[in-house]
Amino acid sequence: MDVPDQQGRPRRKGTLAAAIPGTKSDEIISILIGAMGKSIRRRVKEVTCDLSPSMMLIAAEVFYNAHVVNDRFHVQQVYNEAVDEIRIDIRRQLIAEENNRDKSEPPVTYSDGETMRRILARSKHTLMMSQNRWADIQRHRVNILFKYYPILKAAYSLAVELRKIFNSKISPTKAMGG
C-alpha cells in the first residue's frame, strides 16, 4: 500500500517514515543511528521535516548525504502568518488612530457598510484563501483593503505566487529560478 507524501504523491519504494517520541536531538540521533546501519543512512537522498532547527540538525547528523527539505505545510504556515501579521499591524494602528479621534464624528464606513476596523477583523481567513474561493462579500472586503493598504496586497500576492510554485509540477531548481 502506498502512503502519500506531504504533497499527496505516492511514496516510492524504499521510503522510511519514523515517529519517535521526544524532542532532545541527541536522544533521537542515538535512536536513529541504533536503528539502522551506516550504509542505509548513507543511501538516504532526501529528508523532509518541519522548520524545527533540532529536526534539521537530526536529519543532517543522521542522514549526512541527504538533502534536507522543509515540508510544504510549515512553509505555507510561515508566509500565511506573515500576511496575517501585516493585517494585525494595520488593525492595531487603526485602533490607535480611532482612540485619538474626535468621538463626536462617526467612523468612516465603506461601500459595504462596514468600518475599516471591521473589514480588517473579518478578512483574516479570506487572506489565507485563494481568490477563486472567495465569496462576493469577501472579494468586496479585500478589494477595499487592497485599495487602502497596498502593502497587504503585495504580501498577499507573494503568498499566492509561493502557493503556485508549490502547486506546480516543477523541479526545486526551476522553482528557485535556476
Summarize the structure.
The protein is mainly α and 178 residues long. It has a two-stranded parallel ribbon. The longest helix has 29 residues.
Protein model, in words:
The chain has helices at 25-35, 38-43, 53-62, 72-100, 116-122, 136-148, 150-167, 172-175, and strands spanning 46-49, 67-70. It has 178 residues and is mostly helical. Helix content is 55%, strand content 4%. The protein has a two-stranded parallel sheet. Strand 1, helix 3 and strand 2 (67-70) form a beta-alpha-beta unit. The radius of gyration is 23 Å and the shape is elongated. It starts with 24 loop residues before the first helix and ends with a helix.
Pick out its properties.
two-stranded parallel ribbon; 8 helices; mainly alpha; 55% helix; 178 residues; single chain; elongated
Secondary structure: elements and pairs:
Layout: H1 25-35, H2 38-43, E1 46-49, H3 53-62, E2 67-70, H4 72-100, H5 116-122, H6 136-148, H7 150-167, H8 172-175
**How much of the residues is beta strand, in percent?**
under 5%
Using the CA coordinates, give the radius of gyration: 23 Å
Distance between the termini: 35 Å
The SSE order reads HHEHEHHHHH
* Helix-and-strand structural type: mainly alpha
Largest sheet: 2 strands, parallel
Number of E-state strands:
2
Shape: elongated
Strand order of the largest sheet: 1-2
Detail the poorly predicted runs.
Answer: none
Number of H/I helices: 8
User: What percent of the residues sit in helical stretches (DSSP H or I)?
Assistant: 55-70%
Q: Quick check: average pLDDT?
A: 87
